[in-house]
Amino acid sequence: MSNPARELHSLYSEWREALTAGNQALVNVLRPHTLEGAARLEAGMRLLLRIDGVLRQFEDDGRNVALYRRQFPGWSMGVLSTEVGWGNNLGSDNLVSAAVMDQLEGFANFLDGKVFEVEAADLDNLRDVLGRARKLLLEDDSLDPNLRYYLHRLLQEMQHAIDDEAFGASYDFSEGAQRLWVAFQAAEAKSAKKGSKWSALVHDITVGVLTTAVIEGAKFYIAIAASPPSA
After folding, report:
1. Where are the alpha helices (DSSP H) in 140-172?
2. Which end is more exposed in the chain, N or C (fewer Cβ atoms within 10 Å of the end residue's Cβ)?
3. Domain residues of the chain, as ranges?
4. Burial of 164: CB neighbours in 10 Å, binned 0-12, 13-18, 19+
5. Is the dihedral of CA 120, 158, 4, 216 positive or negative?
6. Measuring CA to CA, which residue among 98, 72, 58 is closest to residue 5?
7. Is 66 exposed, middle or buried, given 0-12, 13-18 or 19+ CB atoms closer than 10 A?
8. Coil, strand or helix: which one is 77?
């Protein structure tokens, strides 16, 4: 669910298969004017943005990903379709070439073990944590309104990612879980009534969902939780 290159490869494979089945116009395959088609295109763009974010993080960490940076513009062609147009009859290689598919597969293999991946058991634990947090948020009227709003929006965002297959495939659960972990800690510190229950959620998301590496990365979000955005 969380390897964006593998998800994009899967999406392009689906589109290539549809084009191989019959030489037809891209607009008839992707159906961008339907809700489902628009959602698939949005998912493709989100995956490209996630890949760009992963590359930027590697660059910030001093890793050499120049090869993938050079390849990245070609990976976007399937979603953008600027070279082939929407109304022309195409074959699968006209949309995304076999060489580009191999590049994406190679990058997906490179990312294995380097990006946070959510397993089925992790999702079950996350669903439980989200449900308990929503209930606790309704009960705890001692929290600062800005923090309540921030938690509400974050819980909605993560629930939507779990429930929506297209959105979930392109959602960065690592970043979302990090922000949730920090937000729970902020609620624990600031709650006048339910601090122990927020503390339990901090523990449960740590044990059931996050890894040590992800928790270390959560330090980046301390400032966000300390000063949540206003409406």
Report:
1. 145-163, 165-170
2. C
3. 4-111, 120-226
4. middle
5. negative
6. 72
7. exposed
8. helix
d(CA 57, CA 60): 5
Residue pair 226/186 in contact (Cβ under 8 Å)? The answer is yes
Task: Report the residue count for the chain.
Answer: 231
Phi/psi zone of residue 150: left (φ > 0), alpha (ψ -120 to 50 degrees), beta? alpha
Residue 56 scores a pLDDT above 80: yes
What six digits make up the tokens of 20? 């191989």
Q: Residue 194: CA atoms inside 13 Å, Cβ hemisphere, count?
A: 21
* Residue 154 CB neighbours (<10 A): 21
Residue type, 191: S
Category of 31 on φ-ψ map: left (φ > 0), alpha (ψ -120 to 50) or beta: left
Average pLDDT over residues 25-39: 83
Structure tokens that stand for 79 in this block:
């979603």
Mean pLDDT across 124-141: 90
This model's pTM is above 0.85: no
